[in-house]
Design a protein that fits this description.
Elements: E1 22-24, E2 33-35, H1 40-51, E3 55-61, E4 65-66, E5 71-72, E6 75-80, E7 83-90, H2 98-110, E8 114-119, H3 120-123, H4 128-136, H5 145-155, E9 160-161, H6 162-169, H7 175-184, E10 189-190, E11 202-204
Helix pairs in contact: 1-4, 5-6
Length: about 210
Amino acid sequence: MHMIAMSTAQFPKARYPVARPLLFTSCKCRVAIPTPVYDVLLRYALELASLDPSVREICYRMGPQIECPPISLAGVVLRREDGTFLLRVHQTRPERSDEEDARLNFVLEQHGLRLLEWDRKDIHREPRFSNSRTIWSHAGRHVSLIDRLKLAVSLEQGPQTIHELEERSRPACDVFAAVCSLACENLLRLNLEDAQLGPQTIVLGP
């Protein structure tokens, strides 16, 4: 598999100024993932993937380009518990015949990959999408070492709500912002699926 073995992707120099891709990083990213400025859906998909407990690692392939069927194997790769997936993000999921699907899957299997396609509807599914955006709005927020230790010790008692975690750990910081920031660092997990984030959201250890 052709994986980038560097901290960030390298982009060729252009004759005229062009918008450089943004870089997405998380603790699960093997490299900084280039995301085109116009491709907001891809960035949202990466945020969701980084918070998905089944995703162990986020990688980036440089190729190759396959001619038959025509497909590029460059792009984001998710290493999950159930396999390694080439991620494709679309506004609308493309339609393919059974024969086209079979050819595509055969080529992917030759490279140790399976195809994972998300469209706008998949990515914007609620409440997961809004919860992910809320969590990532707190990415990089400072959480002191003492508060980290207090929260970690409390979570050793098992899953609990944010409210219960605050009552047990008594951190000096805003506990909601802290658990969101630590979730971005893959140091704990939050239940994004069942309801909007709030005091009753379940917090789990990493």
